[in-house]
Amino acid sequence: MDAALKRSRSEEPAELQPPAREVEEKEEEEEERMEQGLQEEEEVDPRIQVGRGELEKLNQSTDDINRQETELEDARQKFRSVLVEATVKLDELVKKIGKAVEDSKPYWEARRVARQAQLEAQKATQDFQRATEVLRAAKETISLAEQRLLEDDKRQFDSAWQEMLNHATQRVMEAEQTKTRSELVHKETAARYNAAMGRMRQLEKKLKRAINKSK
């Protein structure tokens, strides 16, 4: 019976195997599907990428703000420290020379007035010198015009020549008036300057000790 069973099994038809080409094609298709699946997994939604970029910018901005706030606080602490130190030194200085500064105030005020008077006197001197030069040039213009008129017998004293002389004469008159005013201002400012310097020198001698301590 066993022999018959074996014989019947050996007589059963063998299983049909698919052709080798079909197997290769199926394997290639399977590989393509797997690769496509991996690519789909690797691809990220563009919105997610944009969100990541904005998140990185936000984190960087937050770090910058924190750093700047720290620097600002450090600067404030340094400022408070310097302010306290300066206040202490100023208080000590006031205690040390406060009375001398108060006593020497008249001298420093007189010195300021003298300096202002000096500047005004210098300006008045420059104005006077300028007015003198303008007057000299105007007189020279008239003198040359009259000389040429006398040297040239053929030149006629017409209206144009008369107008030119009138204009030159007007300039001379204006220059003389300007010179007179500037000369008066120069004398006044010089007198104020001399008086201010005299006052300053008197106070300098009187308050010499307080002045030296207040410097």
From TrEMBL:
Q: Please, which domain of life does this record's source organism belong to?
A: Eukaryota
- GO cellular component labels: cytoplasm
Q: Give GO BP annotations, semicolon-separated.
A: intracellular signal transduction
The protein's organism comes out as Neotoma lepida
Q: Where is the composition biased (Basic and acidic residues)?
A: 1-12
Identify this protein by name: SH3 domain-binding protein 5
**GO MF entries:** guanyl-nucleotide exchange factor activity; protein kinase inhibitor activity; SH3 domain binding
Oligomeric form and interacting partners: Interacts with GDP-bound and nucleotide-free forms of RAB11A.
UniProt biased composition (Acidic residues): 25-44
